[in-house]
Amino acid sequence: MTDQAERAAEKKAIIDRLMSLEAQELATAQAHYDAFLKDAQLDDREGHDKDDIAASRENADLAAAFDAPVHAHHAKIDVIENTNFGITDTVQPGAVIKFNNRRFVVCVSTTRFDVDGKTYMGISTQSPIYLAMIGLQAGDIFTHNGIEFEVQDVL
Fold it and tell me: Where along the chain do its domains lie?
């Protein structure tokens, strides 16, 4: 396999894991939303006491609280699906970058995740650190919060 093909395969594995992570987050948020929404519905019997009504309202409020994360994860998946993850040598949306011996995927913010023994984290195109290094290439220096960093690799 050529170096370019190896880098493309590495990047595909990273992006597949990123999408899988976000899909899992969406499924968890959706399950919580559905559970609280189900518990918010009163049964068909005629009389409900104050406790039944209070529990129903509380569960409806909790379901509403999980509605925002469901929408946020849907939005992140939409961004991932519509980002060009082609191989690049420039820090831009879709790039996988390494600096300070840490690896980041420029797309959406995520928790840390591992691929082939390496740890990555998604960062948003709105994040201050991304904005400090947009357009840079491997070997370029940027400053964030008064600290200088070198872009070690861009994929």
Answer: 3-154
